[in-house]
Amino acid sequence: MDLTRIPLEDALLRLEPLAERHREPLRPLADDPALWVQTNLNASGDGFDPWFEAMTTENVTGRQISYAVFDKRSETYAGHSAYLTLSPEHARVEIGWTWYGTQFHRTHVNPAAKRLLFAHAFGAGAARVELKTGGENLRSQGAMEKLGAVREGVLRSHSMTWTGARRDSVYFSVLANEWPAVKAGLDARLEDGAR
Is the CB of residue 80 less than 8 Å from the CB of residue 56? Predict the structure, then answer.
């Protein structure tokens, strides 16, 4: 697996490798405390700059590849997503740190972004793409199921949130041989206006 840090683009979105120029466009989108309830960093309010620095630092070290998500329909930034837990030796990668401004929830943005990210990962030789979310984040779990990812299980008391509370993590995955069916489902949703 050889994932490269390049822009990803289709008719709906442009995923731009995260850079300093994205800091201010993303800041107001992140200012929703509900987005950060089960995460280990809080990017709302005063937490945004530390979150942004953490994302850019992980990019520099090569431990992740972060993207600012630009929505071509509204001609504005919608949020962020990233490749995490890069494991080329096992042909495995996680898609995570995905969040969007409230106005982009239940729109074409998430399925279109996932389609670009999955396609790039599998095109680069991934055998497995993982996703995980907090045990109480039913909206994200529903989105992962809707895109066709397989729910694998729950890791109990898996990580610490920024509030100090422990959270369970629910894991999902898509394997390379499952990608054509997942892709077809995403394509159909996007043709229908995607929700």
Answer: no
pLDDT, mean over the chain: 90
Cβ atoms of residues 84 and 169 within 8 Å: no
Q: What topology does CATH give the domain 8-191?
A: Aminopeptidase (3.40.630)
Extract the tokens encoding 130.
Answer: 């993982």
Q: Where along the chain do its domains lie?
A: 8-191
- Digit-coded pLDDT (tens) for 79-122: 999 999 999 999 999 999 999 999 999 899 999 999 999 999 99
Q: What is the pLDDT of residues 168-180, one digit of tens each?
A: 889 999 999 999 9
Torsion of CA 126, 88, 58, 105, to 10 degrees: 10
Amino acid at residue number 176: A
